[in-house]
Structures are given as C-alpha cells and as structure tokens.
Amino acid sequence: MKIVIAPDSFKENLTSLQVATAIERGIKRVLPNAHCVKIPMADGGEGTVQSLVDATGGRIIRKKVTGPMGEPVNARFGLLGDGKTAVIEMAQASGLPLVEKAKRDPSKATTYGTGELIRYALHRGVEAIIVGIGGSATVDGGAGMAQALGVRFMDKSGGPLAEGASGGSLNQIWAIDSSGLDPRVRRSKVVIACDVNNPLCGPRGAARVFGPQKGASPAMVKLLDDNLRHFATLLQKTFEKDFAKLPGAGAAGGLGAGLVAFAGAKMKRGIELVVKITGLERELKDADLVITGEGRVDFQTAFGKTPAGVAEAARRSKIPVIAIGGGLADDARGVFEHGIDALASAAARDMDLAEAMRLSRVHLENAAERVMRLLLVGAKLGQRKQAKKKPRGK
Question: Is 239 exposed, middle or buried (0-12, 13-18, 19+ CB in 10 A)?
Fold first, then answer.
C-alpha cells in the first residue's frame, strides 16, 4: 500500500514534516511494509516557508530586519532546493504577533522589513519569489516595502518621505518616484500567496475589514481607508492601472496592491502554489490513500485551507482522503462535502491544550494507528461479504 501523508503544520507546536513523521510511525505499527511518502504542506500562511524548505530540500536563511513598529527583529526566509526560488512570509518581518497588544497601531506600522527580506532574497540571485501575506500588523498599502526596494515617495514640498512609510503617512505622499526601484525586482517572477479577494479600500477594503483586529479604532479605520484611497489614486496615476478595486489588493493591509504595482506580482491561491511546488499530484498518481490534517479541523477547513487543497488534488486522482486534526470542532463534518472522506482526532480523551501540545507526537502516532486498524476492519468486512457471495460446493 502506498500512503501519501500531506498535513499542514500544527501551529505553534509541530512543523508539517514533524506531523507527517508522527503519522507515519503510527501507520507502521499496523502496516510495517507500507510505502509512506511524506509531503509537508501549507496554505501560504504561517508555516509555508518551513514546509516548502522541508519538501524541496532547501534551507532557512536568517536576517535582522525592520519590524512593524520600526524596531529590529530577527526574521527568516526560505531558499528552496532549486536554489532559484525564495519563499517569504511577510509576517516574519511585519506580522501582528511581533507587536505587543498594548502597542498595536496600524497607523504607524510599516512593511519596510518585508521589503528588506525581498532585497536579501534578491542578493541570493533568485529568479522567483513567493510571498505569503497573511498575519500582517500593517495597513500601509505596501509603501514601506516599496521604500526598502528603492522607491521614493515625495511630499508636498518635493522632498522624500522618511523611510518606514505607514498607513498614517500615506496622505503625505504627493508623488511616486520609482526610478530607484531595484531592477532585479522586475526581472524576477514574484508570486503572492493570497486567499482573500478584498479590494484595497471601501467597505470590504483593508482598513475596514482588517483594521480593527490590528488595533484600529473607528476613527483610525476611516483615516486609514481615506489614506489608502489617496494612495490608490497615486498608484493609478503612476502605473495607469486601477488598484483600488483589484481583488486581493487589500490583503495584508494593502501589501497585495503594493506588490502588484511595484514588483509586477501575480496572485495565486496559497494551497495551489504549495501543491505545485511540492509535486503532490505527481505522488498521488499511484497512491492508495491520502492522510492530511491540521491543528484544528472545523467547517472553515473546507475553504482554502491545506486539508481541503490536498483533498481537491486527491479527488482528481480518485484517492480517498482522511484528515487527522489535533482537535475536531462540532461543525467539522461539513468537510465531508468537500472531498474529505473521513475524520479522526489526535486527542483520544479530554485534555487541556498544554497537555495536547506537550504529547502531540504520541497522540498523532496513536491516532494514525487507530485509523489504520479501522481501515483493516473495513477490509475484513469486505472480504467476508465477498466470501458469502461465493456459491457453496456440492
């Protein structure tokens, strides 16, 4: 039996490769000769860099960059096994978790550090850059990122805006000078891993939808939305393209718009990118079973998350899919309508989160063993049914 094990990471606990390894151990308890193929997965959000580095035999590169509030932070990006592709999670440099709750202020937060990560990747001679843009602390339209790559924003007097442009300073920009943009950016293929289609501004825009969760008050939300609209007008004047209504432009506080405008980036679903890079579909061709999973499986799992993306690929090859979750929500059964055939919980009994995380590897091994034993029961039932159908000899 060939079993493809393609889980997401268990956030803040295990990488996707560690999850896959634990599941493999559980399978081998029951089927020691099973051919298990481990493919670390992600959906473009947290854990994508590690998953793709593990899946391709790449490596992690660490750099000190400018954090969202202007302070230095230690960040990292991935160089994939081909040596030509970099993977960046913008949250590493400009993410909300980097800012203490009491200090969160999207009017002052900048994506400058994300631009620095892109620049460091270019220094490595990469030809393609994948940018995952979830979990941002920013609403600056990608202006800070652009500054780090050489773009200058001019104020009303004709002088350059200080580095570290933020959502609150966008209304000070009167002109965009992109003549100093690092030419390597445009020569590279930049792809955005994005699973939201929010426009840059307006009722569904970056400020109104995502601003409050980043610490914006109602008054600040209005200011940020107005500033993004002003920035969109300048972008349209500079690049002759309407970025205000572009689907996905509002992702990560407008970083989507900034990457499209200044880096010529294209947007793609995160899970689709990961499926392609990891070669998942190639491994599925002769597989008998797929096991996927994530830290918590609920109805939202069906929409753009890793298990749903894995199930979609498996469905094209007509392979059954089982998802193992660290926990299962009451509405998890909704995933059955989206290509996942069965669910299992890593937790076999009630326990608090600390215990679940501390013993997560053991729980996953045990869950995988239970799954395989149930499959064997099903196989035996099938054999008994077939035996009953055979005509008895005289």
Answer: middle
Look at residue 319 and tell me if it is in a domain: yes
Instruction: Supply the pLDDT for residue 351.
Output: 82
Helix axes 16-30, 48-56, angle to 10 degrees: 60
Domain check: are 302 and 265 in the same one?
A: no
Name, in order, each residue with C-beta under 8 angstroms of 349's C-beta and a sequence gap of 6 or more: none
Report the alpha-carbon distance of residue 376 to residue 224 in Å, rounded: 58
Give the other-Cβ count within 10 Å of 135's Cβ: 17
Here the CATH number for the domain that contains residue 153 is 3.90.1510.10
In a domain, 231, yes or no: yes
- Residue 61: partners with Cβ closer than 8 Å, 6 or more residues away: 76, 77, 78, 79, 120, 124
Residues 6+ apart with CB under 8 A from 102: none
63 and 7, same structural domain?
no
The one-letter amino acid code at 61 reads: I
Burial label for 75, CB within 10 Å (0-12, 13-18, 19+), is: buried
Q: Which residues touch 380 (CB under 8 Å, ≥6 apart)?
A: none
- Per-residue confidence (pLDDT) for residue 299, from 0 to 100: 87
Give the strand pairing for 321-328 and 35-38. unpaired
Q: Three-state DSSP class for 349?
A: coil
Task: Quote the pLDDT of residue 393.
Answer: 58
CATH of the domain at 317: 3.40.50.10350
Taking alpha carbons only, the member of 45, 44, 36, 50 closest to residue 6 is: 36
Whether 394 is covered by a domain: the verdict is no
What pLDDT does residue 44 have?
86
pTM above 0.85, yes or no: yes
Backbone angles phi, psi at 78, to 5 degrees: -110, 140
Q: Which residues contact 374 (CB under 8 A, 6 or more apart)?
A: none
177 and 92 belong to one structural domain: yes
Show the domain range for 379.
2-39+279-389
Q: Which residues of the chain have pLDDT under 70?
A: 392-394
Alpha helices in the chain (DSSP H): 16-30, 48-56, 91-94, 112-123, 143-148, 183-187, 218-239, 251-263, 270-278, 280-284, 306-316, 353-358, 360-389
